[in-house]
Fold:
Amino acid sequence: MKKHDILENIKIEKLIFGGSGLATASDGRKIIVSGGAIPDAMVDLRITKSKKNHLEAQIYRTVKKSPLELDIPSNWQLYGGCKWLPIPYPKQLEIKEQQITEAFHSLKEETADTTWHSIIRSPDSEHYRNKVEFSWGKYISEREGKHDEYRFGFHVQGQFDRIEDCWYCVLADDVTNAIFKDIDVLARKSGIPTYDPKTGVGFWRHLVIRRAKMTGQTMVIFSVNGIFESGNAAKKWTKEYLLTEMIQQLSKKYESITSIYFLENTSRADVVQWNQVLLYGESTITDELLGLTFEIQPKSFFQVNTLGAEKLYQCVIDSIQQKWGTLLDLYAGTGTIGILLAKEFKKVYSVELVTSSSEDGQKNSDRNSVKNVEFVNSKVEDFAKEFSSGWGKSDTIVLDPPRDGLHPSAIPHILTFGAREIIYVSCNPATLVRDISIMLGKEMSHETTDIDATDIGASKEALEVKNLPKYRISDITPMDMFPHTHHIETVVRLERI
Ligand SMILES: C[S@@+](CC[C@H](N)C(=O)[O-])C[C@H]1O[C@@H](n2cnc3c(N)ncnc32)[C@H](O)[C@@H]1O
Structure:
């Protein structure tokens, strides 16, 4: 079995974390399947990698649809960003819950007396995103005989230079879809070329629409390239066009649009850059979470599923059993968790790496008249070292790191704080289990589960934590913030023994 070989009539056994399918080849090797695997489907696969212990393959043809597969409504559209749309939502929840159980397989003994809570579902399974980023571009493929100079929607998965047209994003709300459609019509009509990342020429690049779920306020952000091919008839349109025609039409039609930004991005990088100019309305929009208000600038971090975030934060709040003393909100973003919990604690430290997030946190804290949160703009690993070597002790710690998990050097310091409870909020079960194993002083085995094929050995840190305060895993709660995607959040409560 080698690269490019076709394997026929293979059954997808299950989905693993990351969204790939799992199947078994005739020689017993596991196959990691990409390309929209659904459990129980029979497929033909094309091998993309042949390794000693496993194969990787792409779905080449579906022989028999999975009995689970839904026919999605004809006005909905299936993208890389909502790959699980054909799987019924209750089944998605079951799969995610199962994946968390499997992720903790290597901590079987340590979770024997843990309380496992049922997965918390997102209040909305569709239309839940409060921020959607669309891209302009092209779709040129000689092999497929396609040559479209104007496309507006989302990137074809893994292809930076190809855009798939969007006609309806089921994760966005109706206002976002309607604004997107109108801008599409206006941009098409303008005749101004879309940006080509290969040549750096063209105008339209990205459109970001942010909606405040609770107040309905809407922010529209155009990201464009200032460069045109000389002599291009469209040249006269550019900013003038945006400033007059488009803004007038949009603001007249949509009362909810309270700010419109314009970003000129001449760099080749495919990112929405932030040298923003406010063209219309207010500089920020305001949203609410569990009764507190939060101001959102174009670049502010704010959880994209507002109602889901309320559920997640409520779960964190409820997980803390003794609310007094000092709270450390580590990897704090804009400080939402610390601000929500401030009235329960004497002092809160919100530690965050990104300066603008700490600044936004301070503003949010002031706006809500919260006085006892101190924003520390620092790496958690540096803060932890300093705090453990003098500043003091903490009673409760909330950890909400990015996908990579905790920095290993921070773990022994975090444990020396001697907190009664540590609440770990994770968006990656593999690094969650790795970090908890280290925190419990457990030597990491190099045995991998099919959930995570990466090498997660970390025995040096495990040895370092052996003589520090001991914890047990008291509660595990999976949470679905991102229906129709493979992403899962987990809230784990560790209790000091
Ligand atoms: C998952 S977000 C947490 C957001 C926040 N708790 C919330 O709910 O809004 C992770 C945050 O960690 C920050 N971060 C990443 N690495 C860090 C580090 N080494 N030290 C401190 N913060 C870091 C990121 O900038 C990001 O804001």
Notes: The pocket of S-adenosylmethionine is lined by residues 301, 303, 331-334, 336-337, 351-354, 357, 379-381, 400-402, 407 (CB under 6 Å). Residues 446-457 have pLDDT under 50 and may be disordered. Residues 6-64 form a domain with the OB fold (Dihydrolipoamide Acetyltransferase, E2P) fold (CATH 2.40.50.140).
